[in-house]
Specification:
single chain; mainly beta; 8-stranded antiparallel beta barrel; two-stranded antiparallel ribbon; 1 helix; 61% strand
Length: 165
């Protein structure tokens, strides 16, 4: 027959494993009192951080003042559609919203234009400022490279950077 270690608890003699279970129950009860009844009902959201390469092919839709409104498709880890508001001077700058599955990601970027006739290449940086859905707390940044077509006002942009959400 197996013999268990026993400990004296007040005037009672109890097996040690009974005391261990009782101690665990007391700790759980205290945690429930401290954190309230909803503590078990909340869910944690795991933060993710990923390195992305996304290529967007945008075409001219309209203009508002000195801004070009562009739309198109994006390919890469977060494929979807893109809407951008761009201003082209000695540099290219503007804001964008990417609509991948599960939400949206918004940000801004700018780059210096390098003249070469009909096509002007550019390079610069971008910053992710937020989003919606699964990307509601999105932050990050990176580099952007691309080509601006002066004839049809289309833009091809490649971005390389990090996104935390």
């Amino acid at each position: 027959m197996r013999r268990f270690r026993e400990r004296r608890f007040g005037s009672f003699l109890l097996p040690q494993r009974v005391l261990a279970r009782a101690s665990a129950a007391v700790v759980l009860a205290m945690a429930a009192l401290l954190y309230g009844p909803s503590a078990g009902a909340t869910t944690a959201i795991e933060a993710r951080s990923i390195r992305l390469t996304i290529t967007a092919h945008l075409h001219y839709v309209s203009s508002k003042g000195s801004y070009l409104i562009e739309e198109g498709s994006a390919s890469g880890q977060l494929a979807g559609t893109v809407k951008a508001r761009l201003r082209v001077t000695a540099e290219i700058s503007g804001s964008f919203t990417l609509y991948p599955r599960g939400g949206s990601i918004s940000g801004e970027g700018s780059g210096t234009l390098h003249e070469s006739g009909t096509y002007a290449s550019f390079g610069g940086s971008l910053k992710i400022l937020g989003g919606t859905g699964r990307y509601a707390h999105g932050r990050g940044g990176g580099k952007l490279y691309g080509v601006y077509n002066r004839q049809n006002l289309g833009v091809t942009i490649q971005t390389i950077g990090n996104l935390s959400y």
